[in-house]
Design a protein that fits this description.
It is built from 9 helices and 5 strands, in the order E-H-E-H-E-H-E-H-E-H-H-H-H-H. With 211 residues, it is an alpha/beta fold. The longest helix has 33 residues.
Length: 211
Amino acid sequence: MELTRLVHIVDDDEWVRESASILLDSAGYDIVAHESGVAFLETLPELESGCVILDMHMPVLTGLQVQEELAARGVHWPVIVLTGQGDIGIAVQAMKNGAFEFLEKPYENNQLLQTLTEAFEKIDQIHEESAREASARVRIESLSQRELQVVQGLLAGLPNKLIAYELDLSTRTVEIYRANAMDKLKASSLSTALRIAMTAGVQPLEERRKG
């Protein structure tokens, strides 16, 4: 499913908002313009996620303050900050706060469009990783407790014989659980099964302490 390419423009300069909106609309983006950081944050709970173009120099709340508030609210949308020429210190602080990129005003149109392309590629990557993690967790949750323990043993790098020892099972029983787990995980190879387990956050089996 193709994700909406939504851009939030947060700038107190009406001309900047209008010119950026025209440019991005012609490039196929959906745009929501916000006249200040305060207005943006007030409507944030109702907004769709997207990329944020954020001016650093605004009254009441600066771009840096808006950035900090986004982080405090757990909102991690890619932020492209706009700075004045020579505002290196502000740009560096914005990057430390997690900004995706910064552009100096006046920016080139192509530069903004290229930066947005890269930002949405990052969003796509995050969504894909999230989908893989969710799929892996569903598969792992389909395992029985013993099947999961066998997979944990494999993650620890243990052969079937040692897994059997750790779980007080016969080697043949471990082989059966391993085969069942591979089937439920829809894994055609051991490496695929281990990759699924690691993606789901499964931890390796802890070996008994040798006396």
